[in-house]
Design brief:
alpha/beta, Metallo-beta-lactamase, Chain A, seven-stranded mixed β-sheet, 7 helices, 13 strands, about 30% helix
Length: about 270
């Protein structure tokens, strides 16, 4: 297996977090193992890594009954076509994937070294809209939340209140360079403070390994560092150097190509 699997244990459930390798942007898919069913959160960028998530789920011997897509960045939905379960997303996320999903996948592949365009997956339309609020699934209480203007315009969070677990996805990273392509430095930091007030002690991020409440401050600190680095950078390569020098232990550099596509439009070449 190319990715890493981390197990989070809790009352009545277990969560198997698959973290892709660097070429898959170290993005996470979470397989929530309920008493009878499996619920999958996010579907990977590359088919090879989506296949490993499928293998992980199959080994648990329970059916995947739902796929939740947190937001419309390609590393979270490109592999959805390989998942047979019905898919769910926020209304705004569904609209973006359904209308521009193929372009988003193509752009993600074009900006990422090591991906063959011959393996380019097609976007899968989202089946259902998920609304904010509580829902009981296989006897377990889920809380679906929305966060706007953080890493992207709107994204889904999934809380498991009775287990003290928050699947924060790309509002929180762990040991991985944040994707700052939308330049929402201040509003993202504010969004982190909002979810920090929620009563969760186990935090499952969108990139990197599961962690705890210390991730909130770590992500706010990263945003401050990135804001300064971007303000001083002479161009994309200079920004990459500044971020890597500031946090040499961080992964996620494979996302820099797509990030810089948005940050430095004048530098675009050969990518649409």
């Amino acid at each position: 297996m190319h990715g890493t699997v981390t197990l989070t244990r809790a009352a009545q459930l277990r969560i198997h977090t698959y973290t892709a390798p660097e070429t898959g942007w170290m993005v996470n898919s979470h397989v929530i193992e309920l008493p009878r069913d499996l619920v999958l959160v996010d579907a990977q960028l590359a088919p090879a890594y989506a296949a490993e998530v499928q293998e992980l789920a199959a080994a648990l011997g329970k059916p995947v009954t739902r796929l939740y897509i947190s937001h419309a960045h390609p590393d979270h939905f490109a592999g959805a076509g390989m998942i047979e379960a019905p898919s769910y997303a926020l209304a705004s996320v569904k609209a973006l994937i359904d209308s521009t999903g193929d372009l988003r996948i193509k752009r993600g592949y074009s900006c990422t070294p090591g991906h063959d365009s011959a393996d380019l997956p097609s976007r899968r339309p989202v089946d259902h809209v998920v609304e904010a609020g509580d829902e009981i699934i296989d006897g377990i209480r889920f809380n679906f939340g929305t966060v706007a203007d953080a890493e992207t315009t709107e994204q889904l969070t999934i809380g498991l209140p009775d287990q003290g677990i928050l699947i924060a996805q790309d509002i929180i990273y762990n040991g991985v360079h944040l994707f700052i392509g939308e330049q929402a430095f201040d509003s993202w930091a504010a969004a982190i403070t909002v979810i920090e007030a929620l009563p969760y002690d186990v935090i499952l991020p969108g990139h990197g390994l599961p962690g705890d409440r210390r991730l909130y401050e770590a992500n706010r600190a990263y945003l401050a560092t990135a804001l300064t680095a971007f303000a001083r950078a002479a161009g994309p390569e200079d920004l990459n150097r500044r971020l890597e020098a500031a946090l040499p232990e961080y992964g996620g550099t494979a996302m820099q190509g797509l990030q810089n596509f948005y940050l430095f439009p004048a530098e675009r070449s050969g990518v649409t």
